[in-house]
Structure formats: structure tokens, C-alpha cells
Amino acid sequence: MEILQSTAKVQQAAMNTAKVAQTQQAQSVQEIQKSQIHQEKLAQQDTENKTQKSGTQEEMDKLVDQLNKSLDPFSTSLRFGYDDSFFVSVIDTQRNQVLRRFPLEQAEQLLPKMQEVTGLLFDHKG
Fold it and tell me: What does pLDDT average to over the chain?
């Protein structure tokens, strides 16, 4: 009789161990799935950020190009550029020195004013 009880206890313990193992395996699978979902979200956010930066970088290229074109008639060593933080810089190309940095919004306000001054000074119709 004792042998049967011992055998039953061993079988019960084995079933409990199997249940614990199944529970742990299910939890591991859930954690892996959560991790994959999180990684997919991060990848999607990274793609969105790159798209936004790329659009902003194209805008910055265009703005800096227009600012530099407005300086062309003045025969100066000054040029405009920008850095990774999207600040526009005024650069003295002879000394390779940044003279001033300002935010994108100020550069956007500066462009029409520079074009106006260039038009007033170098208008071919006058």
C-alpha cells in the first residue's frame, strides 16, 4: 500500500513540475512576443524619425542654398551652413570660422529680407 501511495506522490509531483514548466514556458513565450512587439514599435518610430529628419534636411538644404545665392552678388567670404541640430551658421570661409548660429525659424525670417536688400541694390531694371 505504501508503495502505491509513494508512486502516486511521485506522479503527482511530476505532474506539478510539468505544469510549472508549462507555465514558465508560456510566460517566456509571452515575454518574447512583448519584446518583439516593442522592437517593432521602436523600428517604426525610428523609420518615422528618419523620414521627418530627411524632410527637414531637404528643407534645410534648400534654405541654406537660397541664403547662399542671396549672398552671391556681395562677393563675400561668408557662407551659410547648418549642423546636425539644425541650427543655421554664418561661416567665414577664409578663416574657416563660425561667426554666428541661429535657429531655423530665424533663418526662414532672414531669407526674404536678404532677397529684398539684394533686389534693391542690384535691380537690373533701375
Answer: 80
